[in-house]
Write a structure and sequence with these properties.
Elements (H helix, E strand, L loop, with lengths): L11 H25 L1 H11 L9 H17 L9 H13 L2 H22 L5 H86 L4 H26 L24 H10 L3 E8 L6 H21 L5 E8 L3 E8 L15 H11 L3 E6 L5 E8 L7
Parallel strand pairs: 1-2
Antiparallel strand pairs: 2-3, 3-5, 4-5
Helix pairs in contact: 1-2, 2-3, 3-4, 3-5, 4-5, 4-6, 5-6, 6-7, 6-10, 8-9, 9-10
Pfam family, one: HisKA_3
Protein name: histidine kinase
InterPro entries: DUF7134 (IPR055558), HATPase_C_sf (IPR036890), HATPase_dom (IPR003594), Sensor_HK_TwoCompSys (IPR050482), Sig_transdc_His_kin_sub3_dim/P (IPR011712)
């Protein structure tokens, strides 16, 4: 339970509002009470001035106002406009005060109703006394219940805000973890790509050394191959070094090399997906060309992820089309389906497939866009330039 002497933090705007409210009540109800009875007016200010701190110290304010009202009852001062401070203090403790003390305050309010009826309507008949008791009791309980409802709603909104903030933090953490995992996977694949290039360079160097004396032309060709392969591998490594922060060489097994898929492996991938029950068409436009290993791998993974998402989300009977367009400067990869697409409600867990696609495309200097199509279905478009920036 929060101590009643502990001040609640309050924005400057709220403090200013409380000051203006207490001032307005003092000017109106306070001076009206002062006009009715001199000493009673002074007591009215004693019930109105503490309202300045109604939100920072709601329990102290309520009990202070009740103490002044009890003094008013004891000395026989009639009810006056300043007694509205009791209702404001009761509302304040029900909204901002401790829950247990708020219920105690309701009980004190009920006791105050009995005391008021016994003093100020003691000469009335019993019907009038009952009527006033019910009316004052309903007023007190209504003010308290309204404050409790306000408190409950405020707590509910605060919980929703905290939950939304926690979900956002979790999503950011999951996205960062997904990017980290994807970079680790890419690092392993690049290790294989570069290792393949180095293997070619070693074989060509050994062959060139062997043929240097007997066939200078073959040696020159071997040296040219070494230069081309080295430059391509170096370009890929420079690109990756700018993105990858951590590698795990202990998990790489050089004794078990894995062949890296590329564009030429897409027909086999599509056949496997067809066997899983997905209707897929494959279309290639433009003049196919030999692609760098990294670029071919990126295109393959994007198609693979797009088909996987289609299997998961497009629904039964969906038709899918994979298109590769070999343009003059870039390769365009398009994966579309006519499944449920935009008709499906957004998922609370968007997954990490699109994160991985974009990460892979950025490594190759390209971009990926994905989203629902007009009329239904989903579309993934990747634009992958042939030439990687060399960097520093």
């Amino acid at each position: 339970m929060t101590g009643i002497l502990t001040a609640r933090p309050l924005p400057a705007r709220s403090r200013a509002f409380d000051l203006l409210l207490a001032g307005a009540l003092c000017v109106t109800a306070g001076f009206l009470s002062l006009a009715q009875a001199h000493f009673g007016g002074i007591l009215a200010f004693g019930m109105l001035v503490p309202l300045i701190w109604r939100r920072t110290h709601p329990e102290l304010v309520f009990f202070a106002v009740c103490s002044v009202a009890a003094l008013q009852w004891l000395i026989g001062v009639d009810l006056q406009p300043g007694n509205i401070g009791l209702l404001v203090a009761l509302y304040a403790i029900s909204v901002y005060g401790d829950t247990r003390l708020s219920r105690i305050a309701l009980g004190i309010g009920g006791l105050g109703v009995l005391m008021a009826v016994s003093r100020y309507w003691s000469n009335a008949d019993w019907k009038q006394q009952v009527t006033m008791m019910v009316a004052l009791g309903a007023l007190v309980f209504g003010v308290w219940a309204f404050g409790e409802r306000r408190r409950t709603r405020g707590l509910y909104v605060a919980q929703l805000e905290e939950r939304a903030a926690q979900l956002e933090r979790d999503r950011d953490r999951e996205n960062k973890l997904a990017v980290s995992n994807e970079r680790t996977r890419i690092a392993r694949e690049i290790h294989d790509v570069v290792a393949h290039g180095l293997s070619i360079m070693i074989v060509q160097a050994d062959g060139g050394l062997y043929a240097a004396d007997q066939s200078p032309a073959a040696a020159k060709k071997a040296l040219a191959t070494i230069g081309d392969t080295g430059r391509a591998s170096l370009t890929e490594m420079r690109k990756m070094l700018g993105l990858l922060k951590q590698d795990e060489p202990n998990e790489l097994d050089p004794n078990q090399p894995r062949p890296q898929p590329g564009v030429s492996s897409l027909p086999e991938l599509i056949d496997n997906v067809r066997e899983a029950g997905l209707n897929v068409t494959y279309d290639v436009t433009g003049q196919p060309r030999d692609l760098p290993a990294l670029l071919g791998l990126t295109a393959y993974r994007i198609v693979q992820e797009g088909l996987t998402n289609t299997l998961k989300h497009a629904g039964p009977g969906a038709r899918t089309c994979v298109k590769l367009d070999f343009g003059r400067e870039m390769l365009t990869v398009v994966v579309t389906d006519d499944g449920r697409g935009a008709g499906v409600a957004p998922s609370s867990d968007p997954g990490h497939g699109l994160v991985g696609m974009r990460q892979r495309a950025s490594v190759s200097g390209g971009t990926v866009s994905a989203g629902p199509k007009a009329g239904g279905g989903y579309e993934v478009i990747a634009k992958l330039p042939y030439n990687l920036p060399t960097g520093e």
